[in-house]
């Protein structure tokens, strides 16, 4: 008994000793800064320095000024559309790799899918500008095929181009979790369903899809949360009507030097994202709990 | 052919994924300042011109310093965290691991501005070092994800055998565990390096006047005449990342083969 207690104590000590450096790093450089960001969002912006006076003014500005509210709502809308497009387009790809590819070649397919993600994000975004632009690849191709007679102008510098570019950038983030969930499905369940007379489509809807839901939920969150804060894509391909909340935060911090308002915008965006994610998790709770 | 319509769809999807990257070398070798079709003939002048770009070399040097330091630091932190979470039980494990992994789901701009506020608040001048601090925060979760799967595949009895043969925990770790997780460590180093080399927002906010390669590229996009050179640079960068990833993938597979596991997944 004593020996076991000592063993457990040594185990705890060993674990704590190992986790200490990364934990302290995260506490000092992540938790503390986030707390300070929260504090700043309640301070008053003076002319040259930040005044240590508590105020709600930054939040009321962030939530009632139509400019900020518009950008926030647009960011949410763009992220929602990007998430829907990315996850819906990714599902068949994950399904194909999990169900139709020879097990020995699965990792090669996944490797092919992940490669574009590891190449320079800035340059990929810029190339979408080349594809979607007025003299771009898309317009040139469509004109050559005779589908259109003059270049389309709605492709670039608006919300559409932001959605296309982000859906492209976040594709692997959607494919991988769905693939992992599909891989975990016991194939005999599908055979059982078909032995019991269900068609392939019904087995898919009643067996595969519910069992793949944890992956779909993870994919939705992994795409939705970071896309709200994306800076590069709206900056390069969004044009004035495609600006998102990260551009606003950058403007407040680096151009207007208004840290309190920038912090309030950042905290508000994070709060909204957290609330939406929690509601989404609650709504999909019954799929994630797993079989009883 | 297995998969029928799904195979066709997946190949179409891959075309969508690769479309921008395929265009990159096309424009890098195109003899025109304007990035548009029709192509104007073959040239390598953008690659030659790249050598004489004044801002490029300091930026590359900064980026390499940042990426190498980030790769080493985040892999060391990753080894500690992955070992702690896969081998030990201790109080507060879930919240602590949650905090360390948080940057994985936190928009980078939030990490960037919160660090900026702290650094300026305590009067730390912005430099290469501050970029490294931010990058380590962001790449450590990726390192942990890769290293956890390497540590998880370990057979605990190998370590116990080493103890029975008189090794101390430190020497057992060095002689038995480290060689077994080495493939994981190498792929963690390569992936942290690649992520850091490509990271823009944190470097943009925390670098001050110190410019990394992505910040340099971003600034060059404002000058249309500079873009073909950037396309040439991008082509080289893509070739380099593909090479590094192929090496990382090779080691990952070898690691799985070493620990006797079955290969079913990718990096994450």
Question: Could you characterize what this model shows?
Answer:
The complex is a heterodimer of chains A (292) and B (268). Chain A has 2 domains: 1-34; 67-288, MetI-like (MetI-like fold, Orthogonal Bundle), CATH 1.10.3720.10. Chain A has 292 residues and is mostly helical. The relative contact order of chain A is 0.12. Chain A has a two-stranded antiparallel sheet. The mean pLDDT of chain A is 85. Chain A has helices at residues 2-40, 57-64, 66-100, 106-114, 121-132, 137-144, 159-169, 171-183, 187-195, 200-228, 232-238, 245-255, 259-283, 285-288; strands spanning 44-45, 50-51. Chain A is 75% helix and 1% strand. Chain B contains 11 helices and no strands. In chain B, helix 3 (56-87) packs parallel to helix 6 (128-152) and helix 6 crosses helix 8 (169-198). The longest helix of chain B is centred in the first third of the chain and has 32 residues, at 56-87. Chain B is globular and about 70 Å long. In chain B, 46% of the residues are buried. The interface between A and B is large, with 89 and 89 residues.
SSE map:
The complex is a heterodimer of chains A (292) and B (268).
Chain A (H helix, E strand, L loop, with lengths): L1 H39 L3 E2 L4 E2 L5 H8 L1 H35 L5 H9 L6 H12 L4 H8 L14 H11 L1 H13 L3 H9 L4 H29 L3 H7 L6 H11 L3 H25 L1 H4 L4
Antiparallel strand pairs in A: 1-2
Chain B lengths: L4 H24 L16 H7 L4 H32 L5 H9 L6 H14 L6 H25 L3 H9 L4 H30 L2 H6 L6 H8 L6 H32 L10
Helix pairs in contact in B: 1-11, 2-11, 3-6, 3-8, 3-10, 6-8, 7-8, 8-11
Low-confidence spans of chain A: pLDDT under 50, at least 5 residues? none
Can you tell me the CATH architecture of chain B? Orthogonal Bundle
Task: Please give the order of strands in the largest beta sheet of chain A.
Answer: 1-2
The proportion of residues in beta strands of chain A is under 5%
Radius of gyration of chain B: 22 Å
